[in-house]
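Let's practice the habit of predicting before peeking. Look at the sequence and jot down your guess about where helices and strands might fall. Then scroll down.
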Amino acid sequence: MKERKFINENIKRLLVTEYIKKETDSAGFGGMEMKRNLMDTSIRLVVNKPGLVIGRRGSKVQEIEETLRRRFQIEAPRIEVMEVKNPDLNPQIISKKIAMSLEKGWAYRKAGNTALRRIIESDARGVMIKIGGKISGERARSQKFFYGSIKYSGEPARSGIGYGYSVAKLKLGVIGVTVRLLNKEYRLPDDIIVRKENLKKGVISDVGAQSEVTDKHE
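Done guessing? Here is the structure:
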């Protein structure tokens, strides 16, 4: 019984995510977090253009909340809309932009490299862009664009890597765009700080969020 309830709750969460993603797609959906509280269900939305989600005097948000109550039986939904700090460091927004570029007729290499360049200029620590489908002919294949460090398993992959996925609909078929981005503030297990004053003693300090050298003159 508990297993069935767990499955049903996860299915409902997935359906809610897909609905909200569809409703806020034009505003640049960047992700959401849903949490059940004692009195209500808080939903935190991250979008590129909050005004399009909120609507005039909050009409759009109220419409979404009403649909969540009526169609998905979400108890007392309360939506909080937040603006994404940097769209070029949000994996969902990046994947959507690439998909839109492909639908406009861009070559997959141009779309991937343009997005990769913007990400690098935003000081990202690591990113992997994968474009898969009939990208250069009748036969489906995939192309990856890499920069920096990306983890695929373990705790770093679960907590430190953001994930985004979008679809481009072309005449030859559907092309999937996957983006994995390493959180700038996440500390990887192998991140260290090498302090110059400790080199004489042969000491390496294993603290900090990034590798750096402290130039301290005695």
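How did you do? The beta strands are 29-36, 41-47, 77-83, 126-133, 141-148, 161-170, 173-182, 194-195, 213-214.
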